Fold this sequence. Notes:
The chain has 117 residues and is mainly beta.
Amino acid sequence: MNITLHGKSLEIRLTRSAQKALALRDTPLVAEMELLFSCLLRKRVYFGDSLDDTTLASDRLAVRFKPIMTRKCSVAEGGAAPPSERFPLENPRPYVPNWLSIDYRRGEWVGNFGYAD
């Protein structure tokens, strides 16, 4: 399936197990693609239920793109949750990925996103 996010086409790739798990939901699953700007770039997909600032892909799935940056560049602080803040981009379109893949394995949502096909 394809949606438009911040003026850019985003291909959403769902595995069969993800399609089955989504069909069982009463509310949309939110897939948040987080791009962290720091000394290095880091990308993660988080899953939740808050529909704030999302784009509906279907009646069972919504997506959001969230760029953030660390307050300072320190490898020692780089762990799972470095001190960070939202990074407002005037034009997020160039940073929106080309694809988002979602799977459901062993009762957990798993996601990844990328820029090359």
